[in-house]
Amino acid sequence: MVNFKVVISDKTGKSLSHELKDKDAQPFLGSKIGDTFDSSLVGLSGGKLQITGGSDKSGTPMRSDVHGGVKKYVLLNTGVGMRDSTEGKRIRKLLRGNMITEEIYQLNCILDGVTIPSSTAENTTNTENNQ
Fold first, then answer.
1. Helix count and strand count (H, E) for the chain
2. Does a structural domain hold residue 24?
3. From CA 106, how far away is CA 59, in angstroms rounded?
4. Residue 67 lies in a domain
5. Confidence bin at 120 (pLDDT 50/70/90)
6. pLDDT tens across 84-102, in order?
């Protein structure tokens, strides 16, 4: 059973969240960070979705330069998963690879070509606040 929460942002700063389950989530399995899809997969017409990142059920972030769908300890000095930017400091952190598997919970995407309709963004925000 595959379950993704897809967070879609456009270039104006608007974002919305959409939950995909089972058959709707199947096209995303096996894809990698940077892949593009048609936006009709999440109910938006016109435009493309580009995957920019995500995290798994435990909150471990995905990183584009870690290959595969596994968790690995990586030595970092900057970038995704690294908060401290002290010069010369490197930390070994647990990160998830760039492939989307069943363990991924949240996907972050950018909507290319069109903007998110304001009525869709407002309805999604109001629905999430009421729950």
1. 1, 7
2. yes
3. 9
4. yes
5. low
6. 778 888 889 999 999 999 9
Question: For 3, which DSSP code?
Answer: E
Range of the domain at 66: 3-115
Helix (H, G, I), strand (E, B) or coil at 56: strand
DSSP H or E run through 21: strand 15-21
The DSSP output letter for 78 is: S
How far the first Cα of the chain sits from its last, in Å, is 24
Residue 129, pLDDT score? 52
AA identity, residue 76:
L
What SS3 class is residue 108?
Answer: strand
Joined tokens for residue 11:
């270039």
pLDDT of 44 > 90? The answer is: no
Say which amino acid occupies 35.
D
60 part of a folded domain:
yes
Q: How do strand 91-96 and strand 71-76 relate by DSSP bridges?
A: antiparallel
